[in-house]
Amino acid sequence: MADVLVLGGTGRTGRGVADALARDGLQVVLVGRDGNRLREAAGGHGHRTLVAAGVREVADTVRAVRPAVVVNTVGPFTATAGPVVDACLAAGSDYVDLANDLAAVSRLLARHAEAERAGRTLVTGAGFGVAATEGVVVRLCRDGARTGRRAERVRVDMVPSLALQAGRLGDALAGTLVEGLPGVPGGRRFQGRRFAGGRLVAAPVGGAPRALVTPDGDRVVTASMPLGELLAAHRASGAPFVEAASSEVPTGALARIALPPAANLLAVGPLRRFAARRLAAVEFRARSAPRVSSWGHAHVRWQDGTSAEGWSRLPEAQAATVAVCAETTRRLARGEGRPGARTPVASFGPELITSVGGEFVDGPSRPDARVDVGGGRGRR
Ligand SMILES: NC(=O)c1ccc[n+]([C@@H]2O[C@H](COP(=O)([O-])OP(=O)(O)OC[C@H]3O[C@@H](n4cnc5c(N)ncnc54)[C@H](OP(=O)(O)O)[C@@H]3O)[C@@H](O)[C@H]2O)c1
C-alpha cells in the first residue's frame, strides 16, 4: 500500500516532495496525466507511477489506493482541491496542498467541521509564504498573550528569495495566478483584500508599499497582495485589522497606476483565458536566488498601543516550499495530524519552521527599515 500519493508528480514541487519523502523510507506514488513524463520524474528514486488524466480520475485513484496522505500540487486549487478532498474524506486519507490564493485557502479551511467529523486532517497553504509569516505571528502573539496583550493590527510580509530553473512557467502556476478570487467576500473578484474591523474588505493589489531591511541588511519593498498569508495571519492573531504584502509585487509608480486596471481586465473571461495561456508559455531563463535567505516578517500592534516585530529566515523559496510540504506530509503520515482543516503552523506550531532548518529572528527591524514609501500610512 502507498503511504503518499503525490498529485502533479512531474512538477517542480511534486518531484521535490516525493524525493524527500522517499529518502525517509515512505512509499510514494507519483500521479500525473502523462506516463512518459511520470516515468522520467520517477527516475532512479523508485517511486511507483499512476496515470490519471483529469481531476475525476485522480479522485477515483485516491478512492482506490486509499493512501495515508494525498499531496496535491496541481493548481488552480479552486478547481482541483474540492473533488480530491471529497475522495480523501471518503478514503480515510489526510490531505496537503500548496494553495496560496485566498479563494482556495478559504474554501479548504471552510471544510474544518466536515474533516473533524471524518477524523481526517486537511492542511492547505503548505508552502513558503503562509508558513513563514504565520510562524512569526504565532510566536509574537504567544509572547503578547503572556503579558495580557491582544493584537489590534497585523501586517505580514513575505520576502521569497527564488531561484529560477530554465523552462516554462506552466499551466498550474499560470492558472493559480490568473484565476483570481472567486467567491471571496469583501470586494470584487480581481481586487485585493485586507481585514478591517474583523471583515474582509477590498484593498488595491500593490497598495500600501513599505520598505523593509531584512536582518541580513537586504533592502526590499513589499506591497499588498491577497494571498493565503492574510487569512493565516488573521486566524493566528485574532486582530481586527490585518494586511498581507509580498516583495514579489511590482511597486514602482507605473505599476501602482497600472495594476488595479490590469487586474480588472482579468474579470473578462476570454481575456483571462488568453492571459493564462500566455503566462503558462512564458519561458524563464535560469536565475540564481537574489538573496541568501527568504524571509517572513510580521509587525503586530497591540491594543495598548505598543508593538512587536519579528522575522523567520528560510532557505531559497522553492526549497523552503518543498521542505514545508514534505515535513507536513511526513507528520501526517506518522499519524500526528489533528482532525480538521488548518494551515501548516496552525497544525504543527511554529516549530514546523525550525524543523525544516528555518530560524526566528526576534526584535524590531533595523531603524532605517521603517520607511513608508507611500500609500500605507493612515489606512490601517
Ligand atoms: N504555496 C506556495 O508557497 C507555493 C509554492 C510553489 C508553488 N505553488 C503552487 O503549486 C502549484 C505547483 O507549482 P509547481 O511550481 O510545482 O508547478 P509545475 O512545476 O508547473 O508542476 C505542476 C504539476 O501539475 C501538473 N498539471 C498542471 N496542469 C494540470 C492539469 N490540468 N491536469 C493534471 N495535471 C496538471 C503538471 O503535470 P504535467 O507534467 O502533465 O504538465 C505538473 O506535474 C502551482 O499551482 C503553484 O501556484 C505554491
TrEMBL record:
Domain called Saccharopine dehydrogenase NADP binding: residue spans: 4-123
Instruction: From the Swiss-Prot or TrEMBL record, give the protein name.
Output: Short subunit dehydrogenase-like uncharacterized protein
- Record's Gene3D superfamilies? NAD(P)-binding Rossmann-like Domain (3.40.50.720)
Q: Name one Pfam family in it.
A: Sacchrp_dh_NADP
Annotated segments matching region Disordered: 357-380
Q: Which superkingdom is the protein from? A: Bacteria
Q: Which InterPro entries match?
A: NAD(P)-bd_dom_sf (IPR036291), Sacchrp_dh_NADP-bd (IPR005097)
